[in-house]
Amino acid sequence: MSKKIDLNKIINTMNERFPEGSLSELEKTRFLYLELGKLLSFDINYISAHDRKSEDIYWKPVDFDNIESNKFICRQMADMYSELLARAGIDSKPEWD
């Protein structure tokens, strides 16, 4: 990937396209979900088996202010989405078993 993913830029894009107060919270969450999804790709190095490599990838934290890759697994994508929502002023958190 040649471009860094900037969560604040995604929020700024939303705010530029839609005037303040024109979107409901649900519409904001949908917009942000779709925009983030356009930038992400599944990390095919992750295997759903219990090997060491999978565990390392699963628990790898995301540096939200320095996202240099677009390859992640669902857990990391959910963390990014939750952070994106928080930065947009929407209260949310991923639920893990």
List the helices and strands and how they pair.
Elements (H helix, E strand, L loop, with lengths): L6 H11 L7 H15 L1 E2 L9 H8 L11 E2 L1 H14 L10
Parallel strand pairs: 1-2
Structure, explained:
This protein is mostly helical and 97 residues long. The chain is built from four helices and two strands, in the order H-H-E-H-E-H. The protein has helices at residues 7-17, 25-39, 52-59, 74-87, and strands spanning 41-42, 71-72. Strands 1-2 form a two-stranded parallel sheet. Helix 3 links the parallel strand 1 (41-42) and strand 2. Helix 1 packs across helix 2. The longest helix is centred in the first third of the chain and has 15 residues, at 25-39. The chain is elongated, with a radius of gyration of 15 Å. The protein starts with 6 loop residues before the first helix and ends in a 10-residue tail after the last helix.
